[in-house]
Amino acid sequence: EALRATPDHWRAMLAQGEIQRQMGNQDSASAAFRRALSLQPNHVGAMVSLGISLVAKNDASGGRTLFSKALETDPRCAEAANQLGLLEIRSGNAELARQWFERAIEAQPDHSGALNNLGVLFAQKGRYDDSIAVFRYGISKIPDDEPLYLNLARVLAITGRRDGAIAVLSVLLDRKPSSAPARKFLDDLNGR
Hints:
This protein has 12 helices and no strands. By secondary structure, it is mostly helical.
């Protein structure tokens, strides 16, 4: 009862849920997110966080319901759209996934997850030029996002543009000299 009287209690529940989710305790995370939602029923972040926990517990339907409700509450919730895109990938519906990722990027042009997911989706479908364009756009929006550089370099290498891949990795290493994945990839490209 004392916790209920604390106005910021729902924030504590959200924080506890995030910690539990990061530790892999999805049941505890879900309980904390449900508690936060009982105190703040329209909190979009809590809906999305609970949805992610449910998906991690193999409840894709429950996750989908919460992501959809988050978008009803806030149509510009990029993470909810990104998560729906990931669910469509799991369901084998690449076209719907593309639409969700694009919606997420429209809502938040620097959404790393959606940018990487869309670029990878295009590469998997053989749409390499579109993939490259997405990764380059992403790097222009988030110049320190390591996965965007690595994914761009992978697509360039796959399409025979080794020099371009080396250049991208070099830029990444200039920005993040401690990037072990970039160093390894560059060594592989250079035959070391």
